Every structure is written in structure tokens, then in C-alpha cells.
Amino acid sequence: MARKKLVEHNALVQAIEMGTPQSEIMERFGFKTVPALKTAYYNGLVALGKIEDVSTKRKKKNVDTKIRVNGRGSLIIPKNLVDHLGIDPEDIFEVVKNSTGLELRKAEKPPKTILRKRTQPPMHRKASNYSRLSN
């Protein structure tokens, strides 16, 4: 992709609006092609606030919102729906049945329990007579 040419927007827009011939503008501002001149003119109009910039963002695809139940009875939520809704893999939900159907609500996560090892003195075995037998 070609580098963007740095041009003084005000001077370029003014030259075009005054009716200066295209070849003279291209020579004066150093443009080699007409599309480069048109792009710079458009960018100049946007920079000066004379027109609004065209949105070039892609529209997000529609996400399938259907959830299914597998043979073990687990709800299967498609990955793209999980990403779209911002669901964390560790989130916990509760299912509520209401007059219109089922509703999934985020439930509070139970507090994490920290298991600590007991600090008991090590067990000592008493030596038995059997372990001291000679071969």
C-alpha cells in the first residue's frame, strides 16, 4: 500500500475550489495520479470538517442465538454466541422458568475455598523386631 502523502489540506481544498486546473494542482502538490489527488481532496474536506467521513467499519455478522441440549442434558452454547455475549468460561448461570419460557441469569460465583494442609508433626514408626532379623 502506498504511503499517505502529507499535504496542507487548506491549500489543496482552496486551490480546487478556486478552479485551478487539475494538472497544475497535481504538479504543485506532487501528485502522480488523479486517484491520489481525489483521495487527498477527500481527506482534506474531512480534516477541515466540510464533510463527514465515510464509515469503513464492517458490519458485524448476525449471531445465531440458538442453544441446544446434548444427549447428556448439557446446554450447548455456540462459541460465536459466547464471544458476542462476553460470557466467561467460569461464569455460572441459573435457569428460571417463567410464563414466556426459560431464562438464563448469571448467578453469583461461590467464594473460593482455600484448602490448607494440616501442619502436624511427621509420624514416626516404631522399629519392630521383625525388621531387624538377619538373613
UniProtKB/TrEMBL annotation:
SUPFAM superfamilies: AbrB/MazE/MraZ-like (SSF89447). GO terms for molecular function: DNA binding. Residues 67-112 form the SpoVT-AbrB domain. Residues 114-127 have a biased composition (Basic residues). Residues 108-135 are annotated as: Disordered. This is SpoVT-AbrB domain-containing protein. It comes from Desulfosarcina ovata subsp. sediminis.
